[in-house]
Amino acid sequence: MKDIGELIFPADLQYTESHEWIRTEGESVKVGLSDYAQDQLGDVVFIELPEIGESISRGAEFGTVESVKAVSDLYMPVGGEIVAVNSTLEASPELVNKSPYTDGWMIEIRPANPDELDDLLNSNAYLEKLKG
Asked: ∠ CA(96), CA(99), CA(100), 5° rounding?
């Protein structure tokens, strides 16, 4: 595992306490696992994601990620409809480790209540939680 200072937390993203990141892209948001989460998990070997069209509420489980160390649940940062799923991860789950903020994105959501985005952490607040 890397030292916290070696991990990357882009300032243009928002984060959850359960280690998902969120990037707003117009009317939707993309979601993935933070650099910290992928580092803690180790080599990701399998990812289970929801179906396009599913509506899932904030805080509910939307999938699982399996690594050589553990199986972890993934949680919705905001409630809404799944409008896209990164199907590339089925064949290449290691993208979560190699490129957590770009190629390793997991789902795209159309938020039901965009105000829920206001409850998420910025990169500095997330880093402080990790150091806490």
From this structure: 55
Domain ranges of the chain: 14-117
The amino acid at 119: D
Map residue 47 onto helix, strand or coil.
Answer: strand
| All residues at 6 or more sequence positions from 7 whose CB lies less than 8 Å from its CB, including other chains | 35, 36, 39
- For the question of whether the overall pTM of this predicted structure is more than 0.90, the answer is yes
33-81, pLDDT tens digit by residue? 999 999 999 999 999 999 999 999 999 999 999 999 999 999 999 999 9
Give domain 14-117's CATH number out of 2.60.40.10, 2.40.50.100, 1.10.260.40, 3.30.300.30: 2.40.50.100
Tens digit of each residue's pLDDT (9 = 90 or more) over 97-127: 999 999 999 999 999 999 999 999 999 999 9
Q: Are 74 and 106 in contact (CB under 8 A)?
A: yes
**% residues pLDDT > 90 (the chain):** 95
Q: Rounded to the nearest 5°, which phi and psi values hold at 61? A: -70, 135
